[in-house]
Specification:
Layout lengths: L2 E3 L13 E3 L23 H11 L4 E12 L5 E10 H17 L5 E4 L2 E4 L2 E4 L4 H12 L4 E4 L5 H11 L4 E3 L1 H12 L4
Parallel strand pairs: 7-8, 7-9
Antiparallel strand pairs: 1-2, 3-4, 5-6
Amino acid sequence: MYAKFREDKEATPGHSRELMNINTPVEYYDKIQQFPLSIEGCDTLLKHFKRHLTTNRNGPFLGTRKPTGEKNAKGFPVFGEYEWQTYAMIDEQSTNVAKMIRSKNLCPKVESDNKDGRRFIGIWSKNRAEWMTTLLASMRVNTTVIGFFDAMGADAVDFIIKQTELESIFASGEYVKKIIEFKKGGQI
């Protein structure tokens, strides 16, 4: 077991209680950004992931709860049990996505400040397992992710893409439709 549900705080309507890593001290639950991240030489998310991969390869890493189609008494959707993907599964998926990013040159190398770097890559999706898998893949090819979110309109998306010279965006279906609409409207 690597995580447990909080017992000190009730769940918000329509959601389960927060899931916390068993190694996170209770005093950091509501101020997780203050929890020291550099543990055993791990100073990046990718290094933490690789560390856990070596110690817990077949352990659960990313969980997804699918809606059952039912609604609770307050009208909120009911979700089933978590379906877990292991560290090994996500490692394989993120490695394959990283290989694809390189082979399709989705994040071209550029020279900046006399250093070789890569262009940014975008992710436009709700928070989900695929988002984290793509983030890990981006780290594997040494690029920075630009996150897009629901409330962004065409002008904001267009501005960000132009400012960052973004060439590639990983997007879930609902956002692909938005991107197509923006493009038809003369933006991005």
